[in-house]
Amino acid sequence: MNTVKTAVIVDDNPPTRTLIFEVLNGIGIKDIVQAINGEDAIAKIRETSPHLVIMDWKMDVMDGLECTQRIRSGIDGIDQKIPIVLLTGMVGADAEKKAYEAGVDLFLEKPFSIKKLHSGIIKILGPA
């Protein structure tokens, strides 16, 4: 994970963004950009070429599932292989299946545990 330098947090809830920011800082990711919806995220991902994206599913303008599908499609000129963590209040196997079919690397239900987010990021990116 030593190569990870930049992450984008996409969530319309400021306290959630703050919590994720603190988790990322705790594992050594210091260059963190924040976005409030999927459309904002696409622009910021283009600008920063992050190594990780963590986003909420339900947001105005463009939700996290649609944003994930756009990233994976390559239509925006973004690296299609960026690891994506999707956080959601939607529960159940159907929601998880939709998320993985869209291309997320990790699906976590809200409220998520900091430990699960932390270990999920380490699993995706590798140990420090």
Automatic annotation (TrEMBL):
<protein>
    <recommendedName>
        <fullName>Response regulatory domain-containing protein</fullName>
    </recommendedName>
</protein>
<feature type="modified residue" description="4-aspartylphosphate">
    <location>
        <position position="56"/>
    </location>
</feature>
<dbReference type="InterPro" id="IPR001789">
    <property type="entry name" value="Sig_transdc_resp-reg_receiver"/>
</dbReference>
<dbReference type="Pfam" id="PF00072">
    <property type="entry name" value="Response_reg"/>
</dbReference>
<dbReference type="InterPro" id="IPR052048">
    <property type="entry name" value="ST_Response_Regulator"/>
</dbReference>
<dbReference type="InterPro" id="IPR011006">
    <property type="entry name" value="CheY-like_superfamily"/>
</dbReference>
<feature type="domain" description="Response regulatory">
    <location>
        <begin position="6"/>
        <end position="125"/>
    </location>
</feature>
<dbReference type="GO" id="GO:0000160">
    <property type="term" value="P:phosphorelay signal transduction system"/>
</dbReference>
<keyword id="KW-0597">Phosphoprotein</keyword>
